[in-house]
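Hi W.,

Here's what went into the run:
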Amino acid sequence: MRAEAETATLRWQDQVYDLLRQHNVTQFAYVPDAGHRILIDRSLADPNVHSVALTTEEEGVALLAGADLGGARGVLMLQSSGVGNCINMLSLIKGGGFPFLALVSMRGDFGEGNPWQFPMGQATVPVLEAMGVICLRADSPQDAQATVNAALTMAFQAGNAVAVLFTQKLLGAKRF
Amino acid sequence: MTKPSPSGRDAGQAAAPAFVLDRRQAVPALIGRHEDFLIVAGLAGTSKDIAALTHDGPHIYSMAGAMGGACMIGLGLALARRDKRVLVVTGDGELLMNLGSLATIAVLDPPNLSIVVVDNGHYGETGYQKSHTSLGVDLERIAAGAGIKRTCTIDTQAGIAEGTRLIREGNGTAFVRLCVSTTEPPQFKRDLSPAACRTRFRAGTGTGTGIGTGAGGTA
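Here's what came out:
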């Protein structure tokens, strides 16, 4: 059962990575995170993309604006706690009308055992929406690919700022 | 009674640079032919420096907010446009807000990115309060410590040529600390709209006006 779950996890994350590459996403920015491990590792192993390790998530917001100025597409991979580190930098995205795609691994939500994660986890959606970022939730492996596909269209065809929330129903809650 | 100095201040002061150059002369002299670069300008003073220098040209993206973002916008742009040299021109206050970006940039070391910090040791826009760089913090040493290999500090007229060479060399990311006095930047009425500047930049630099598409769309 555990092995099956692991295989299913690998499959949807690989599908999401392939989808991002099919849409010509070439800048992958991240703060290391267990929920995004497979996506991060795929970007590190891919000679055709830039894998950009950040010291704080707001760097990635500015990076993606710069990518757009140069005609490239990027994605920011972060944990919900890191959303709080992005708030003012999202002024750049909203004010500039930059397309923006973020993949957020949720903490402080379904089944969370670490009390430190709740304040920002519960504030993630209100904070993003307050700064003009549309939030889409993905609760299952089937959901994940379809939701990222939708977000890619909304961001890079329609020019919106979009965050896909990989929930703890999808990722599982870390044990403490 | 005077407040005690933080430890290590004496050694720092012994080698402290002079903040005497006039930015209105030194910034244009350092950059030279500005059309050779795609330029990201940080807040306030440096945005005015660059807007005046380029007459608010299409090859500049200048900011009036999102403080701390200039270097990372430059990194994203440099990775996307390997065919161009990208120059970030920002102030000490703007850079101090996101020193981690120097670490991120150093790890990638894009050869077509140069950073110039116009360091007057003060927050000019809010009334010339002292910044940390007036109090011993050395941004060149921080950049070098982050791992940026080509760095220099310029505080004399004679030193400007070295900085000009460094920002055009292309062997790796370059970092120039240009120390200037607290004279006002040139007054220039620039377009403050971040959206209008985005459209202008993309249309004027060969990226195109579409969303998420363009000549530089490959890694």
